[in-house]
Amino acid sequence: MTAEAVAVAPVGVPAPASALSESALPESAPPAGPAPTGIRATARITARRHGSGATVLPVLEGEGPLAVRRIRGADGEARVALVGAMSAPLGGDRLTVRAAAEDEARLRVTSTAATIALPGQRGEPAYYDVELTVGQGAALHWLPEQLISARGSDLHVTTRADVTEDGVLVLREEQVLGRSGETPGRLTSRMTIWIAGRTLLDQELSCGPGAPAGWDGPAVLGGLRALGQLLVVRPEFTEAPVQPCMLGEHASLTPLAGPAALVTAVARDGLAVRRVLDTALESLMR
């Protein structure tokens, strides 16, 4: 690092203006402008294995539209549902969900309804970040309902997951471009997955008005309006990797360079995408 020199005058003698660096001058007030819109909210979920073998939730916090509720678990698994406490994400919103399954813990996170991205007052983008952590011997199932991109919205979704070498992650992501009879908004989605510090998957897709040309062409969506992905990370796939195959006309199963498999599907509606992903999940978890 380099430091900018400032000339210092003897005590009682003002320094000439030319001897002062710009950093020594008083900062001018920022120009007045419109106040930022949108809300900032974070939900935090931490699952921890109890001595009895059950999984407890020492951290279960939500803010604003991100309400979290504990629901009935089973077989030592803790279950949490995200509940939309208000309309979100709107343009200008910045929402974050952090969920962690500590060593040997088992956590399943769902949501009670679809999430609808809506336009804000000034056309600003909204941001929705999901951060997942899976500890040693832990399992985390991230299974929210669909995300619907409404006309005029602009949403950036980022999903990051850090999984230990013997952790289990089941991650489902479903997106519907526009409500019934509606043109979609702009939707940019990026997913980055690490296993034991190594990058397993890093991909981004942008759809809707202003997205790079070709997003609706035959190489991507082919005119369809619903898409979904199912990522399954299991240590068992190290010794017995899945075999690539087609799952119907518009869906495929692909082994990844690690103990993981990725299912990708597009369809005319969200219900058709869910059927494909549910069938694939049942097969991959046997």
Automatic annotation (TrEMBL):
Domain of life: Bacteria
Any one GO MF annotation of this record: nickel cation binding
Key word Cytoplasm present: yes
Keyword annotations of the record: Chaperone, Cytoplasm, Nickel insertion
GO-annotated cellular components: cytoplasm
InterPro entries the UniProt entry points to: UreD (IPR002669)
Subcellular localization: Cytoplasm
Keyword Magnesium: no
Principal place of residence: cytoplasm
Function according to Swiss-Prot or TrEMBL: Required for maturation of urease via the functional incorporation of the urease nickel metallocenter.
Similarity comment text for this entry: Belongs to the UreD family.
Assembly with partners or alone: UreD, UreF and UreG form a complex that acts as a GTP-hydrolysis-dependent molecular chaperone, activating the urease apoprotein by helping to assemble the nickel containing metallocenter of UreC. The UreE protein probably delivers the nickel.
Name this protein carries in UniProt: Urease accessory protein UreD
Organism, as annotated: Streptomyces mesophilus
